[in-house]
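Researcher: I'm preparing a figure for a lab meeting and need a structural model of a single chain. I don't have an experimental structure, so a prediction will have to do for now. The sequence is pasted below. Please return the structure as tokens so I can convert it later.
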Amino acid sequence: MEREWFLPFKVLGLGIWMLIATSCSATLSPSGVNYEVVALIAIKTGLHDPYNVLENWDVNSVDPCSWRMVTCSPDGYVSALGLPSQSLSGTLSPGIGNLTNLQSVLLQNNAISGHIPAEIGKLERLQTLDLSNNKFNGDIPSTLGDLRNLNYLRLNNNSLSGQIPESLSKVDGLTLVDVSFNNLSGRPPKLPARTFKVIGNPLICGQSSENNCSVIYPEPLSFPPDAGKDAGAKKHHVAIAFGASFGALFLIIILVSLIWWRYRRNQQIFFDLNDNYDPEVCLGHLRRYTYKELRTATDHFNSKNILGRGGFGIVYKGSLNDGTIVAVKRLKDYNAAGGEIQFQTEVEMISLAVHRNLLRLWGFCSTENERLLVYPYMPNGSVASRLKDHVHGRPVLDWSRRKRIALGTARGLVYLHEQCDPKIIHRDVKAANILLDEDFEAVVGDFGLAKLLDHRESHVSTAVRGTVGHIAPEYLSTGQSSEKTDVFGFGILLLELITGQKAVDFGRGANQKGVILDWVKTLHQEGKLNLMVDKDLKNNFDRVELEEMVQVALLCTQFNPSHRPKMSEVLRMLEGDGLAEKWEASQRNDTPRYRTHENTPQRYSDFIEESSLIVEAMELSGPR
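Model: Understood. Here is the structure written out token by token.
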């Protein structure tokens, strides 16, 4: 009878599917209906998707785990929904409440409007909820207080009104709550969060810039109020007693803190976690793997499973117990200078950056002697590894795929530079670090060299790290990197895609080309673009697109970083908007120089030869 009840729904269409989406649990019915599919289709229907990023969300599918922007747990349930910065609008369906295994929801930087569904409060396992920088309105649902596993809640930069729910004070594991820049009112509740941001709510903080309530921390102690002016003597005695008690308590706290600090140091625990730390879950939706689990997955780190090598470690192909294929990066010399920093940087940065064109970190393993990172396996390897591959006599990366790779990489870098807060500099953009998924979509990998850059700073200074031939001139000369350093690296990547050559091709005999940038500049000045195109393409390319891509590459690789475009401008130019104006302006600049002394190099190879820091530049990363 139950089977007969559900069969009609398979033919009545999406409208009735949406009706049951708000009342059914995320399980498979006897008729084969997957209610997680129903819930996701309801979400898709409520959203306006101008760029079809949800194109492969198919109502007839029984398994959503292969859909874009959807992550599943090893047991096959949807565990993460990551749709940040996808130009989505519309509303968020209440059907999201049926994805009962969700641990992470990332919908920031879109234009989604309407109310936040109260049904989100059903997601008992939810740890990260980021709806920031949208157009949500109405009240913050009090049901969010039912999310007892919630760590991170970001609702900032919306149009929310009403009071901040008192129910959130019951969520003990909160680390961050950000409700800034809304229209909220009333007195904020006392939350157990380490960071509580409410700035930009005039009815709470007032309109004066002097009334700074940007960060509210929980009060560790509550002091008694005054009993009145006529109770001075009593207050005096109470104050003495309280002071003595507080002093003793303070000494105890200091002593316990020192003991705990020494214990933590000896145990080499690398994350500062809250008291409710679960060893199986860490940093939002990331999974903490055991060393034994990853050793077994890689067949004891068998050399036959090596996917790539880099300065900080080796990447292995692995198969988990449930059959999931992964890439495991095993860091070497983690106790040496930079090793532990590398691990912390990758884990923290990648966990914050979620985008379809960025490599997603699934989890990590941290023991006394090992540091490992776990990523999804990219079946098509890296751009560098596929540039010379052929199938039936044709290059695997034809011209259309190369252009798609350029666009996808640009979108990933735009997200890192202009949509992350704080922004992230990759510092080693090259073909070997651009991975290819099953559809040959570009996925920017290897954030091991990434450095956070606060919006108040223009650059960060570090020892030069990267790969010779991809490092920007100012970085070589001064050690200063900025987002314009990545723009330079992206320009070199474009030249790699166009020519099929490595950035530095020394020692090639009669065909030696030296530094690719100098070679391309010369051919461009001589009007010989056909000589720089990868011969494997056999003239199967669009000549107008070639000219445009070369111009974009040369704009990105100008020696003066201030004259290079931002990545968002680069993306627009690749999409056909504004290139002519930028190119004309660059020609008027007449080879801009960022240094003024007479011996300014005219060729990129001269920067490499004269740099006193190049001895520290090395290939730190390879394909995963």
